Amino acid sequence: MTAGPVSARPPSTDVPRYYAWLSRFQDAMRWIGHDTGQRTLTVHRRLRSASGEVSGDVLHAHLLAGLGATATHPVGVDATGDGPLVLDAGCGLGGTAFFLHAHLGGRAIGLTLSPEQAARATAEAARRGVDAACRFAVRDYDGPLDDLLPAGADVIVAIESLAHAPDPAATIGRLAARLRPQGRLVVVDDMPADGVADNDTDLAGFRRGWHAPHVASTGAVDAALAQAGLTVVLDADLTASVPRRAAISLALRLLATRAVAPMATRTPARVLHEAILGGLHLERLYARGLVRYRLVIARRPGNR
Ligand SMILES: C[S@@+](CC[C@H](N)C(=O)[O-])C[C@H]1O[C@@H](n2cnc3c(N)ncnc32)[C@H](O)[C@@H]1O
User: Fold this and answer.
1) Per-residue confidence of the chain (304 residues) as pLDDT tens digits?
2) Judging by DSSP bridges, how do beta strands 291-299 and 231-237 pair with one another?
3) Which ligand 1 atom is nearest residue 157's CA?
4) Atom 12, ligand 1: residue with shortest CA distance
5) Chain centroid to CA 213: how far?
6) Of ligand 1's atoms, which has the minimum distance to the CA of residue 93?
7) Which atom of ligand 1 is nearest to the CA of 210?
8) Nearest CA to ligand 1 atom 11
9) Residue 291: how many CA atoms within 13 Å on its side-chain side?
10) What is the chain's alpha carbon radius of gyration, rounded to the nearest angstrom?
11) Distance from the CA of 19 to the center of ligand 1, in angstroms?
């Protein structure tokens, strides 16, 4: 197993601004009573459960079930009996860290590039009285993390965060090297099929709007996990749980969003306009069957 390249390309400076605007958008949606993830403190896809519920916690339920199914120790207990140390690489508002801490105990460290998200997550940890166990920092997951994880992590989760990495395969290598032996890396993301043309209008629109210039394809993620010396122990295709819009509704939204572009691009909120457009292009990729929403768990070998 290698630690991956030592020096990483710096992350995009646009990402913090993008998430500051998304937080404001979620706040605004809350005022009109529409949950876009603020209830679960998540910035990931709200999936549909078997009972029809659409929420950020549906992915959390899949995550917990996956961790349970692939555990080598009783769920909630690592080899030391202290509860797992979880690193959330790209933690958003902290919802996943809080969820895993509530169900597994142990400790969680969340990293984000957004000072706004880190401040919100830290305040929420204090409000919940879990600030000793759930900590958040504005740090690059590609940077040195030895001070935070001197003995490595039991579980590293990267939910819709590798899409922003300048080199997702190298990031997977670095994160894998931070796992303890038998530790698990969880990657959840929208993964384009291999072979979708780089200049495909929908792929390009999605990447531009969501600040995901190097989003990794399904095959690229698999290859990076293997290259990092990890063994895939669970591969769940959650695409069927991704809510879909009717084709006509999607087409009309795209038309309307493009129509307001000349106005929107002149305002500071253009980043939101681009994000909405990016999301619609991603929906079209789903409609065309060219992207899958995958939850992959891969284990580092070795004895503890
Ligand atoms: C789509 S949000 C997902 C947040 C969270 N995982 C969730 O499920 O709600 C992507 C997150 O990745 C973070 N991120 C992107 N690149 C990062 C980097 N290089 N280091 C740390 N965090 C990063 C962003 O700041 C943001 O919090």
Assistant:
1) 334 444 566 666 788 888 888 888 788 887 777 777 888 999 999 999 999 999 999 999 999 999 999 998 765 556 566 789 999 999 999 999 999 999 999 999 999 999 999 999 999 999 999 999 999 999 999 999 999 999 999 999 999 999 999 999 999 999 999 999 999 999 999 999 999 999 999 999 999 999 898 999 999 999 999 999 999 999 999 999 999 999 999 999 999 898 887 777 777 778 888 889 999 999 999 999 999 999 999 999 988 7
2) antiparallel
3) 6
4) 90
5) 15
6) 9
7) 1
8) 90
9) 24
10) 19
11) 9
Ligand 1 atom closest to Cα of 141?
Answer: 20
Distance from the alpha carbon of residue 267 to the mean position of ligand 1, in angstroms: 25
d(CA 85, CA 217): 29
The verdict on residue 120 lying in a domain is yes
* Domain ranges, residue 209: 14-43+51-244+290-299
Q: Tokens representing 73? A: 């120790």
Q: How many domains does the chain contain in total?
A: 1
The answer to whether residue 166 is domain-embedded is: yes
Question: What is the spatial distance between Cα 140 and Cα 204, in angstroms, rounded to a whole number?
Answer: 25
The answer, as to whether pTM is greater than 0.85, is yes
Q: What is the Cα 134 distance to its own chain's centre?
A: 18
Q: Please state, in angstroms and rounded to a whole number, the distance separating the CA atoms of residues 66 and 162.
A: 19
CATH number of the domain enclosing 130: 3.40.50.150
Residue 101 maps to a domain: yes
CB-based contact 68:75 (threshold 8 Å): yes
Token pair belonging to 7? 């020096």
Q: Probe ligand 1: pick from 13, 22, 91, max atoms within 8 Å of CB?
A: 91
